[in-house]
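Notes from the 1:1 (GR / supervisor)

We went over the backlog. Supervisor wanted to see one worked example end to end before approving the batch request, so GR pasted a single chain during the call. The sequence is below; no edits were made to it. Supervisor asked that the structure be written out right there so they could see what the output format looks like.
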Amino acid sequence: MAKKDDNPLARFEKRKTNYPLIICTLVLFVLLVAGVVTSLRGQDMTAAGIFAVAIAVFVIDMLLDISQNRRLAAVDERRYIRWDAAMPEVQRQNVNVEVRELARQLGVGNDQLPDLLSAYIVAEDLALRQIQQEESLPMMRHVQIGRTPFDAILIDQDLITCIETSFLVVPDVRQDKVESIIKKVTLAKKNLAEMKSRLRLRLMLVLVTQLSDEEEEQLRAALITRRFTETPVDIDIRLLDFEMLQKVYVSE
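Structure output shown during the call:
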């Protein structure tokens, strides 16, 4: 039996340099320059102007092509990066930490942990569904970039959006949660830099809330602080109401 490819995005052969195209491009550029020189010698300013404009358009087109090729090269790099599923032990540990924190905030006992666990899992699933619906991009759930696990990632050309979710029943995000998220995205960026990858990273923090209107306003005010200024990438914070998500995806 053939060995399964370790990389789910599959490796493809890199594009080869098109030398005939390069030669034709250089010849065309030389001919345009020669047209300008000849027109100037013949004092045909109209023709010289036309050739000069043609050269300007040619140069702009070349710059755009180079930029596009760099972007495509970065996109190709996705196929050479391992996108491993986060280990079940890691996922279980993260969920248990979040659920126990919810129990502490709500002041409930261990007998209600199973109900909180179910609510947390549902909230995360519905939130990721909503984000994928809003962004209309391929999503991979519970994967690692290098050895750094994220709840999900979105893939858009050379931009990878790392998604972290949290279920809030109080109008604040724990400081240890903030520090953990910043640490993870910093490590992921470092891993890509060590691989000399041109892929870009962005962080999306998805907060599923079960708060009153007043508490949600307090949360928004709390988020407009310097708590995320140390994040080494752009950050996008989304607030989603748990009741709204259930109405959209669960209730008939």
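Supervisor's comment: The first helix runs from residue 19 to 41.
Batch request approved.
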